[in-house]
């Protein structure tokens, strides 16, 4: 039994109208995710499915539907696939295994891996893929995450600080538009990127 097919079907149904209206898609940004910050035994079973659906499966399925529109040049020739961008929001929790994020980290590691593979597969087309690792950002979602966050998790996350949404958004958009393979912010962000990059292939 395919338990994942219903999610893809729902996404496809909702996007079908959009794909008939749009001739092409120039920029696709997957800014999705939420964190249930609890120890593994304290995390409800459904929270693992929900975080994986929002952070990984949803973006993967949406990309599956819209990518063909990104491979088509504009009718007037003004925009080619090489001018197009796709961005996926991972997290510092998708670079490091952090106490209290068993479900969240798994979902963000998943989207990181997916983005890396897609980056390689799309290289011949010219479409550039950016993986975003934003710092803790002062949003309602982050405030909700903090309600049950273990103290150990707070201590680990503290050094990176709390960032303004406007500052984060401006930096991320710049990185996406210039086609950076990975987008990070601050000294901590760069240090973690350098420590965890492995053999990923940049396209700077």
TrEMBL record:
GO terms, biological process: 3-keto-sphinganine metabolic process; sphingolipid biosynthetic process
Q: What GO MF terms are annotated?
A: 3-dehydrosphinganine reductase activity
- The yes or no answer to whether the keyword Oxidoreductase is present is yes
Keywords per UniProt = Oxidoreductase
One GO CC term on file: endoplasmic reticulum membrane
The name this protein carries in UniProt is 3-ketodihydrosphingosine reductase
């Amino acid at each position: 039994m395919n338990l994942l097919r219903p999610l893809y079907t729902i996404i496809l149904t909702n996007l079908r109208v959009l794909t008939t209206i749009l001739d092409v898609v120039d920029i696709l940004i997957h800014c999705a995710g939420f964190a249930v910050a609890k120890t593994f035994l304290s995390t409800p079973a459904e929270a693992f499915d929900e975080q994986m659906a929002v952070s990984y499966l949803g973006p993967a399925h949406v990309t599956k539907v819209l990518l063909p529109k990104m491979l088509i040049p504009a009718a007037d020739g003004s925009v080619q696939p090489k001018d197009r961008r796709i961005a996926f929001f991972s997290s510092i929790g998708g670079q490091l295994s952090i106490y209290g994020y068993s479900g969240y980290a798994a979902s963000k590691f998943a989207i990181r891996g997916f983005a890396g593979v897609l980056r390689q597969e799309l290289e011949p087309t010219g479409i550039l893929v950016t993986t975003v690792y934003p710092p803790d950002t002062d949003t309602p979602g982050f405030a909700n995450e903090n309600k049950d966050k273990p103290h150990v998790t707070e201590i680990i996350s503290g050094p990176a600080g709390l960032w303004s949404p406007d500052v984060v958004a401006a930096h991320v958009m710049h990185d996406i538009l210039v086609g950076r393979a990975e987008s990070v912010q601050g000294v901590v962000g760069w240090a973690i990127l350098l420590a965890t990059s492995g053999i990923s292939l940049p396209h700077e």
